[in-house]
Design goal:
Mean pLDDT: 86
Helix content: 55-70%
Structural class: alpha/beta
């Protein structure tokens, strides 16, 4: 451990705080606390018992950067957590409401320890001035500083511009007193002749050595007492410097060496400390100013703006831009400082837009910085110029990758032209050690170039005229890769997405090049066709739609019919699942079917029939949908793929469900359910998970049949399976087709609200527009059903209007019925009845009968609110009951029975009321906890008494 000379410890509880050394110990061991949190503790501990105003704290800790109290609260909370001060009665730091914070611990000021050196400590020899404030590196500095007490030779390794020199200099100043001022900084950056290494060190030590070999004289000096040598920018002299460092460390027992380099020395006794980029704000829509400023990269950016432009306050609108800038600059300190220097001229938005250009590599920083640190280009030139030819070629070629890439992909794309695959992988290993490539991913090995490095390397690729050659290789590799992915139907979806989904950015980059001015449209068309499975499994239907349109335009009228069929199928499906009632989906799918018949392609014939059937569902043509389901079943009858037969049964079950035949629908869906155990592979023609999608429709059918307990249990299991599956559209359907409506119909509005909120968040996160529209309307219906008609009614009406044509999708039908019922609750029965008549006309036109009993029941309830509506209401109740009975929909029967019983009870016909309830409830063996069953049993008890 370092000595804390002239640094009085403040002791409290098990802690000792050394303010000057910026060190906090717990029971004698260093306790790592974030830099801001430590600043707060020091400031409060130096004023014990005094309430420090929040504004004063903020001004002291953040200097001339304007932040709100949220940042202060965040760091105080982090401090309390580190101190274990999280109970109801704070022991160390308390909040005084409306005033500020107070350090209340009982403390003892320890006497300063005896200094081991003369009080007249000389200033560090040749050590540069340290930065006024180091942001985001306090823990790193502490670890390295403490590490020098344990290890005699440490190397800070990291890419150029990450802050290695600044960290090393700060450590040197912090440990200066421990070495009696004998801290020497040796900058090897300007050195071009490695034979002058020893004399360069001697010069930094202030020694004049005339001997041919200055090493003995260096050792004589270094043996005289404790000393710290800081060797900076060693990467270009490692071969000659490494043996010298090993020797002086071995022969000068009181010496410590701290080196900075873009790769390690690989020397005996070396302890490597890899310096990582500053933490950046995540990519999230709801980031506010306080949260953005908890990340060191954003703190550095804002502080450097304040230094160059005067006082600066980050706005809520600018916070996401700052977060994006920091991420795109990979948390590299030099890059962030240079970007912050542009804000005065271009503003934050303008600076963000400039990051895509190579111009950003030439932004200049501090005039006092060494030349290799004045621009990003200079920092990267320094590394690039040191590379052997094989490594510089590999780095250039890898710049065609967007984001992380696998070793196999790198070998395929970058090898050739004198480089074998093994030599390419060897060059990558070396580039990793030199901090120009970073390993990425924990489950499987992948690599990535930092964005700044990639921009630089891509510029070099352009300069040498190699871009087209390696962009083509990149696109060809991913065409072949995704052609294999399409055939991989046995891998579970989460694993499939882990392997193939990680390449989305590379697919996008390859397609952008292929359809660009210097690209290859034929290669782009082939890659588009191969990548369809990726977009569908990622639920990126809008992207699939636009990419296939681009490919079809490039294909023109004379292209390959099989490729045209594949692209048209993808376009039709993306329109159908992405937009619902898309008018152009049907002709596209009909053309796909014609091509499939002409080419006698079974898979695409079934894909087209499936798509056309779903299109009829979306457009409310349920009779036509059933006919297409029949046609699909006949086409699948001779298929060797058992999943095709299962899909045929599922289509028929859905058609019968919407047509109102729940008993036959149950027979078909149970047949699918009974066969799921033999499903070894994912169906080739189906975008959702067949197991999961079978269960949410099965749950709906079970509910309508009056099997409430089974339906609710199945919906709950379905949610777990949908989450584990990881397919965005499938999980939307899990929540929207079963979990939300079943909870709503059961009267469990807490669960309905929970599922509705989850669905909306999930749909927005994955940009699944149709389910987002439905979730907003459903959540409004929940508000109204809870009794808040004043809020729920206008909100539900507004959300249904916002949905536009999507209101005609089957999933919206119950919400339209609930809106009509809400009008009745709001004493607008006439308006409700007018709406119900329109909905009933729609249902009759479309043969959409599954919700018909409930709609007619709602109509009867609205009639009761009119003085002349009693006879017609009773007739409507009976009609609703008869239809529910015909459909096998016992849940609707129960609702009708409750309404009829209440109507008869109001007329004094108690015996008739009891009879209808007992008749309907007698065969129902499930659902005792649902709202309808509780109401029915309550009425029965009332009538019997």
């Amino acid at each position: 451990m370092p000595d804390h000379n002239e640094d009085s410890a403040i002791s409290f509880g098990p802690f000792r705080l050394f303010p000057k050394s910026r060190l906090l110990e717990k029971e004698g061991s260093p306790l790592h606390v974030g830099g801001r949190a430590l600043d707060i503790l020091i400031f409060l501990a130096e004023r014990p018992g005094e309430v420090v105003d929040k504004r004063e704290l903020v001004k002291r800790i953040w200097a001339d950067v304007n932040v709100d109290e949220g940042s202060l609260r965040f760091h105080v909370a982090a401090l309390r957590k580190a101190l274990g001060d999280t109970g109801k009665s704070a022991r160390y730091v308390v909040n005084v409401p409306g005033r500020g914070y107070c350090f209340v611990a009982s403390l003892a000021q320890a006497a300063p320890p005896v200094a081991p050196v003369s009080p007249d400590v000389a200033p560090p020899r040749s050590l540069p001035v340290q930065l006024a404030k180091m942001i985001g590196r306090e823990e790193v500095i502490e670890k390295i500083s403490n590490g020098l007490s344990l290890y005699r030779f440490m190397t800070v390794v990291g890419p150029g511009g990450i802050g290695k020199t600044a960290v090393a200099v700060t450590v040197g100043h912090r440990r200066s007193q421990d070495f009696g001022g004998r801290v020497f900084f040796v900058d090897f950056g300007p050195l071009r002749d490695a034979s002058h290494i020893a004399t360069t060190i001697a010069s930094a030590l202030g020694l004049t050595i005339n001997a041919e070999d200055p090493t003995p004289a260096l050792l004589t000096f270094l043996k005289t007492g404790p000393a710290l040598l800081i060797f900076d920018s060693c990467e270009h002299v490692l071969d000659d410097l490494a043996p010298l460092v090993e020797r002086i460390v071995r022969e000068a027992p009181q010496l410590r060496v701290l080196a900075t380099s873009r790769e390690s020395f690989r020397s005996e006794g070396e302890r490597i400390f890899r310096l990582f980029p500053l933490d950046c704000p995540p990519e999230r829509k709801d980031l506010d100013v306080a949260e953005v400023l908890t990340y060191p990269a954003a703190q550095l950016f804002v502080e450097r703006i304040a230094q160059s432009s005067g006082p600066f306050q980050l706005s809520a609108e600018e916070a996401p831009l700052v977060a994006s800038i920091c991420r795109r600059l990979d948390g590299i300190a030099l890059a962030i400082e240079l970007a912050a220097g542009r804000v005065n001229a271009y503003g934050i938005a303008g600076t963000a837009s400039l990051l895509d250009s190579r111009f950003s590599l030439q932004w200049r920083g501090r005039r006092t910085a060494v030349p290799r640190h004045q621009t990003l280009a200079a920092a990267l030139d320094w590394s690039y110029d040191l590379l052997p030819a094989a490594e510089s070629a590999t780095l250039r070629r890898l710049s065609v990758f967007a984001g992380p890439f696998a070793p196999e992909a790198a070998a395929t794309v970058a090898a050739g032209d004198g480089l074998s695959a093994s030599e390419t992988l060897e060059a990558i290993d070396s580039l990793v050690t030199k901090s120009l490539i970073s390993p990425s991913g924990s489950r499987t090995l992948r690599y990535r170039l930092l964005d700044t490095t990639r921009t630089y390397a891509h510029g070099k690729l352009n300069e040498l005229g190699e871009t087209r050659q390696f962009a083509r290789r990149h696109a060809e590799h991913f065409r072949d890769f995704f052609q294999r992915a399409e055939a991989d139907t046995s891998t579970p979806l989460p694993e499939w997405l882990h392997v193939y989904g990680a390449e989305l950015d590379n697919v996008r980059a390859a397609l952008n090049w292929a359809f660009g001015p210097d690209g290859d449209p034929a290669l782009g068309i082939a890659l588009t066709a191969a990548a369809v499975t990726l977009w569908v499994r990622l639920s990126l239907f809008a992207e699939c739609r636009e990419r296939t349109r681009t490919a079809l335009a490039a294909l023109g009228d004379g292209g390959d019919d099989r490729v045209r069929m594949q692209l048209l199928s993808a376009l039709g499906w993306s329109l159908m699942y992405g937009e619902g009632r898309a008018r152009e989906a049907r002709p596209i799918l009909e053309t796909t079917l014609e091509l499939a018949d002409r080419l006698d392609d079974k898979d695409f014939r079934l894909r087209a029939l499936w798509g056309l059937c779903i299109d009829q569902f979306n457009n409310g043509q349920f009779g036509k949908a059933r006919a297409l389901a029949d046609r699909f079943a006949k086409a699948a009858a001779n298929s060797p793929d058992k999943s095709d037969l299962m899909l045929g049964d599922r289509l028929m079950a859905v058609a019968l469900h919407y047509l109102g035949d729940q008993n036959d629908a149950r027979e078909h869906i149970d047949r699918v359910n009974a066969s799921l155990h033999v499903l070894a592979e994912k169906p080739k023609i189906f975008p959702l998970d067949l197991r999961i999608s079978t269960q949410y429709f099965r749950a709906r059918i079970l509910w309508l049949q009056g099997l409430a307990d089974q339906a609710q249990a199945l919906a709950a299991r379905n949610i777990e399976e949908g989450l584990a599956n990881g397919h965005a559209l499938t999980f939307c359907s899990v929540l929207g087709q079963a979990a939300c409506p079943i909870a709503f119909w059961a009267g469990d509005f807490d669960a309905a609200e929970r599922h509705g909120t989850e669905l909306l968040e999930h749909a927005e996160r994955h940009a699944i527009r149709l389910w987002g529209l439905w979730a907003r309307a459903f959540n409004a219906a929940v508000v109204a059903k809870r009794g808040d008609i004043a809020t729920g009614l206008p909100l539900l009406r507004e959300e249904l209007n916002r949905a536009g044509d999507a209101r005609f999708l089957p999933r919206f039908l119950p919400l339209l019925g609930e809106l009509a019922a809400c009008f009745g609750e709001a004493n607008q029965a006439d308006r409700g009845l007018e709406m119900i008549e329109d909905i009933l006309a729609r249902c009759n036109d479309r043969q959409e009968r599954w919700y018909l009993p409930e709609l007619i029941r709602i109509k009867a309830e609205l009639m009761l609110k009119q003085t002349k509506g009693l006879p017609a209401a009773e007739a409507a109740f009976r009609e609703a009951m008869d239809i529910a009975t015909q459909q096998g929909a016992r849940s609707w029967e129960l609702r009708c029975a409750i309404s009829i019983a209440r109507f008869r009870l109001g007329q004094g016909r108690d015996a008739e009321a009891l009879e209808v309830l007992e008749t309907v409830c007698r065969p129902l063996t499930e659902g005792s906890r649902t709202a309808d069953m509780r109401e029915a049993q309550g009425l029965i008890a009332q009538l019997r008494s």
